Amino acid sequence: MAILGNIIKGIIDLTDTLKSDTNHIEAQQKVLKNLLEKSKNTQFGEAYKFEEVLSSENIEKTFADAVPYFDYNSLNEKWWYKIHENEEDVTWPGNPSYFALSSGTTGKTSKRIPVTDDMISAIKSSGIKQVTSLHNFDLPADFFEKDIMMLGSSTDLQEKDDHLEGEISGISASNIPFWFKGYYKPGEEIAKIEDWDERVQHIAENAKSWDIGALSGIPAWIELMMQKVIEHHNLKNIHEIWPNLQVYTSGGVAFGPYEKSFNALLGKPVTVIDTYLASEGYIATQVRPETNSMQLNTENGIYFEFVPMNPDYINADGSLKQNAPSFTLNEVELDKDYILIISTVSGAWRYLIGDTIAFTDIERAEIKITGRTKFFLNTVGSQLSVNKMDDAIKNLEEEFSTKITEYTICAKRFEDGEFYHSWYLGSEMDADNAKIVETLDNFLKDANKNYKVARSKALKGVKVQVIPVEKFHDWNDSNKKKGGQVKMERVMKEDKFAEWEKFVND
């Protein structure tokens, strides 16, 4: 009998029962007041008169009117650079203990995003919320005695001046509670290995000694890890070595495009729980099994605003125009794309995180990620979001009975002077190229009226190349992103796409 598991499950069930339903609008108002109150005496708070904002009748509106939009570049150039010059109380009291390194998907150099002790506490609180929400998934008691494999970037953080630096998954894993360390795999020693391939090799070699009940990490790298374990032990599927694997916590990117290839590595179905942890904070987590939408973490150190997704609001460099309107949680509508704006306990203010979301349940504050502002393909008026591209890829998988785990696209001008959507698909599919093109093109015409109009005007046609998915992994590896918080470039501009094509052809 799973005595410990029953105790843990009982505590989780009791915690969830005692906790009243959150009023997310009130929670957000409280978070904003706390953010402003705590940072009113910082350089940023004094510059934007947070004292006056706090004394206004409508704090949300006054705050939005007083503080401009920022992205990483503008906030770093105007404010965060001071932290690196040892100034204190810049955008948040004191100095951060960590910096999360993130090259994202489009940047050529790593961003250095402050992670304060308050943010570590907020991430832990959101993590506890995720654990207690397991009550809703009706998992057996013995699940709570199994090991949990958390696969992210190295936990061997680098010392720099008076702080530590690393990717957010490594920072989070290095701050796991003491009571969790007995469940945590691959363990601190292996997790510190910097080289991804070496770390995965150690995981494969030790896999038999672990009883894994849950996996957590970005789908592409979890898949590669499982493939390595299966290959190393000559298995048919991952359940032959980890028979008690029941849960996979996805994060970083939408799980949909990976679903088919992921399931092919399993011996039986697992419960998939989506999470949304970014370098800037723990944004959202799935809390119930009836939906794959995620609930915004409205109580834990992040204040959210939402800008309607409109190409007219976005500058050529991907930043937000200052005249773009923003809405609070009590002003949004269902099933509309919004650009996500956050203010946080790490001193990010009205910050463009780069993702677009849509609400599936406003009362529960549940969302789905619909794309990236920089991945919104509108070069020739097609107005394609990543979720529409993902849907098109899923349709190809069904039509051609195949798996397509990675893809990228560019609106490229070819030799004839015309624009084409040039797709690269990571797959082993062996099908007639013209048929692939036709299926892809027709699906997008039916799914998106703007695309259909563009195809009758400036967008001449579609080109598709099918390549081994390993090319995508090698590309990420060459950009020093293998195994980290990677989000493969779904959409590339022509200069970056030229580098990609050269890489593929070489």
TrEMBL record:
GO CC entries: cytoplasm
One example GO MF annotation: acid-amino acid ligase activity
Superkingdom: Bacteria
Residues making up the signal peptide according to the UniProt record: none
Annotated GH3 middle domain residues: 299-362
Residues annotated as domain GH3 C-terminal: 389-495
InterPro entries hit by this protein: GH3, GH3_C, GH3_M
Stretches of the chain forming a coiled coil according to its record: none
Pfam families, sorted: GH3 (PF03321), GH3_C (PF23572), GH3_M (PF23571)
PANTHER family, sorted: GH3 DOMAIN-CONTAINING PROTEIN
Protein name: GH3 auxin-responsive promoter family protein
Organism, scientific name: Polaribacter pectinis
